[in-house]
Design brief:
This protein is of the alpha+beta class. It is built from 18 helices and eleven strands. The protein is 45% helix and 13% strand. The strands form three sheets. It has a six-stranded mixed beta sheet. A hairpin with a 5-residue loop joins strand 6 and strand 7.
């Protein structure tokens, strides 16, 4: 039988590092203030109910308290038993099952993972058949490589963090000069954003400060981390030359973001400001989009941040960047759900929209979306308009400042895409789902001329 575990010091340290007083921490965990006080004073042991609450709100911290394997088991089991295909269990029963029957819990987790993998394969086949897509294009192969890597590249991330500790991120020009590279400003209207000729990095004169910093960091990363980047590319399963070159570029971009936003410092600051992206951008001198993207990469084993999904979408609804550390998966082909607020955000630049949504699998998410505009520099060329979205499961709402603006009792029902969405009563449907039959009645007309069976 497992001995009783007293974790007062760890709980108190966790609360203080999150910037919470006892009342706020108790409210987050669903406890009374007096009960939390007794836990912190080691007058009460850790219980299954408290363990379950920690798993929901502080999964990374739970690994420090109970050990990495039990914590990961509890979080994974909670996800598996939240599947709408199974009857729900109270959180304390899930925690007790993970603790008392670990072998059974591991089998349930494996079964759920196999179920999700099978669903993903079916969805991929349906989308590919529907879209008439054969072999993956190089950029699709690289996108999928990052997704399969969990959008976290440990050797590069740690190398970039070590670099940031040894250098001043405010003096990137000097750091570039160490590599024998000069900087030049290109004022031509047709100049690319950046051009490197082997000796000089030429930057477009119209670049905003945060873009300029990122491009300098990118060039430093390509030089300083050339060996690990080459090793990662060589070890990848990518065979197309263009895909391998794109992967090298993507890895340098990843390292540049990790240099400007070092892992531990960025994750800890994000927790303190409740993932307020504007505050993070100011603190680290990055753009809104760069900060969003970095939040989606905080998946270092044992020190994970909140699991986020991130995407960028253009005016036509094309998803040009996507990654999900949550259970939400984006459609590989075709458009996204029209009820998703990111579409509206594209048309309303510089305004943050917030949404509480529920996908067909019963999982609820809180997300923010912001429309952004990148000026073209002249009237004859249209500016680039797009939106970025960042979201997490509603269980993390207390740590996501944007959740304060939504009613967590009434989510908007959304899907992945019309071709994959099973909802039969959606009046925004563009296409019928590929895995459902439809009934057509010429005498009855609704929003669409068919009924999903």
């Amino acid at each position: 039988m497992k001995s009783r575990l007293y974790v007062g010091a760890q709980l108190r340290t966790l609360r203080q590092s999150a910037g919470l007083n006892q009342r706020a921490m108790a409210a987050r965990l669903g406890l009374s203030v007096s009960y939390l006080s007794q836990l912190e004073a080691d007058e009460r042991p850790l219980t299954a109910a408290v363990t379950a609450a920690l798993a929901r709100h502080f999964p990374a911290a739970l690994a420090d308290i109970e050990g990495e394997a039990p914590a990961r088991r509890l979080v994974a089991l909670g996800h598996a038993l939240a599947d709408p295909a199974v009857a729900p269990l109270p959180p304390e029963e899930i925690a007790r099952l993970a603790e008392e029957r670990p072998a059974l819990a591991d089998r349930l987790i494996a079964l759920h993972a196999a179920k999700r993998a099978a669903e993903d394969r079916v969805a991929l086949a349906e989308e590919a058949l529907t879209a008439g897509v054969g072999a993956r294009l190089p950029w699709e192969a690289v996108r999928d490589w990052f997704h399969e890597a969990g959008n976290y590249i440990d050797p590069l991330d740690r190398a970039a963090e070590n670099w940031a500790q040894a250098h001043d991120p405010a003096a990137l020009d000097a750091a570039l000069a160490v590599h024998g590279i000069a900087l030049s400003t290109d004022a031509r209207e047709e100049a690319p954003l950046a051009r490197f000729d082997g000796a000089t990095l030429h930057l477009n004169a119209a670049l905003p400060a945060e873009s300029r910093r990122f491009l300098i960091a990118n060039r430093i990363a390509a030089l300083a981390f050339a060996a690990p980047i080459a090793a990662i590319v060589a070890g990848s399963a990518l065979v197309q030359p263009e895909a391998r070159r794109l992967l090298a570029i993507g890895l340098a971009n990843y390292a540049a973001g990790a240099m400007l936003m070092p892992y531990a410092a960025f994750r800890d600051t994000a927790r303190v400001v409740r993932h307020d992206i504007d505050r993070l951008s100011r603190r680290f001198g990055t753009s809104f989009e760069q900060a969003c993207h970095r939040l989606s990469t905080l998946q270092r084993p044992g020190a994970e941040g909140i699991p986020f999904y991130f995407c960028r979408i253009d005016m036509a609804g094309n998803i040009t960047k996507r990654h999900s550390a949550t259970r939400l998966q984006f459609a590989r082909f075709g458009g996204a759900c029209p009820l998703w607020h990111v579409h509206e955000a594209v048309a309303i630049p510089d305004r943050i929209l917030v949404q509480h949504a529920e996908t067909p699998d019963g999982v609820r998410y809180v997300s923010m979306a912001k429309g952004l505009v990148k000026p073209s520099g002249r009237f004859a060329r249209a500016p680039r308009r797009y939106a970025v979205a960042l979201g997490c499961e509603a269980a993390h709402a207390a740590d996501f400042v944007y959740a304060d603006a939504v009613d967590l009792r009434s989510p908007t029902p959304i899907g992945i895409s019309c071709r994959l969405c099973p909802r039969a009563d959606c009046d925004q449907r563009a296409f019928p789902p590929t895995d459902r039959a439809i009934a057509v009645d010429g005498d009855v007309r609704g929003v669409v001329p068919y009924r999903v069976m």
